[in-house]
Write a structure and sequence with these properties.
Layout: E1 5-8, H1 16-22, E2 28-31, H2 43-52, E3 64-67, H3 72-86, E4 91-92
Parallel strand pairs: 1-2, 1-3, 3-4
Helix pairs in contact: 2-3
Length: 97
């Protein structure tokens, strides 16, 4: 059974092999735009722009898994922001080569 939506926030495109493997587990795979985050700027506005730029809805009606960005502070902010939108934390997918 496939498990909702996978969103790649890593900043690196998934390889064709990774997409093929992950497609066995997820209904849809979405590649987020590369993140240029300014920690000195308005954090909430930047997170809102990042999420609104996705071609999917993050409203808690679908199971969502994320591949987080490599920057730890940004990962925490993003997952916390998504919790506020969905009412729960998204699942996390870590890729290992």
């Amino acid at each position: 059974m496939k498990n909702g939506l996978l969103i790649n926030f890593s900043g690196h495109p998934l390889s064709p092999e990774a997409i093929e493997n992950l497609s066995q587990y997820y209904e849809e795979i979405v590649q987020a735009k590369p993140i240029n985050f300014d920690f000195g700027g308005p954090i909430e506005e930047q997170l809102e722009a990042l999420i609104s730029g996705l071609r999917c809805s993050i409203d808690g009606t679908r199971h969502i898994t994320v591949i987080p960005p490599g920057q730890s502070t940004l990962s925490i902010l993003l997952v916390t922001y998504m919790h506020g939108l969905m009412g729960h934390f998204p699942a996390i997918c870590y890729l290992v080569s």
